[in-house]
Amino acid sequence: MASIFKDLDNPALIINSMPDHVHILFRMSKNVAITEIVEHVKKSSSKWIKKQPAGQQTFYWQKGYGAFSVSRSHVDIVRKYIANQEVHHAKMTYIDEVDSLMKKYEVDGYIPDYYWDL
After folding, report:
1. Confidence at residue 118, expressed as pLDDT on a 0 to 100 scale
2. Three-state SS string across the chain, please?
3. Domains, the chain, ranges and CATH?
4. Within 10 Å of residue 2's Cβ, how many Cβ atoms?
5. pLDDT of 75-99, one tens digit each?
6. Can you tell me the distance from the alpha carbon of 84 to that of 106, in angstroms, rounded to the nearest whole number?
């Protein structure tokens, strides 16, 4: 994934995956829209996973995704947060985490039915 971000001129600062999701902090270029980045990352990584010897031929990304901007002063905090996902998700599921963040930051337009393929 890091090479995909680099090729799109959006270098990844940290990538950490869990069994049911991935967190990526990257420096976003003004030349590529977030929808294009997500589409390219999902397509390319899905193809790569399916080609691996132990890859899952049925792998797919859910249709939804979340993208949040972070001020420069919070980059280190977010980087540490992403690095500690395993510990964090031992206490809270990803769905509970997202629901909590959406409420905490009063995100308008959060539609759980779109976000989750349940």
Report:
1. 60
2. CHHHHHHCCCCEEEEEEECCEEEEEECCCCCCCHHHHHHHHHHHHHHHHHHCCCCCCCCCCCCCCCCCCCCHHHHHHHHHHHHCHHHHHHHCCHHHHHHHHHHHCCCCCCCHHHHCCC
3. 2-115 (3.30.70)
4. 13
5. 999 999 999 988 888 888 888 988 8
6. 24
Residue 28 phi, psi (nearest 5): -90, 130
Q: Rounded to an integer, what distance in angstroms lies between the CA atom of residue 112 and that of residue 118?
A: 10
φ, ψ (nearest 5 deg) of residue 6: -65, -45
- Would you give the distance in Å from CA 67 to the centre of its chain? 7
Of 60, 44, 34, 39, the residue nearest 3 (C-alpha): 44
Q: Which residue has the tokens 């905090």?
A: 77
Token reading at 8 = 């799109």
Tokens of 100: 């909590």
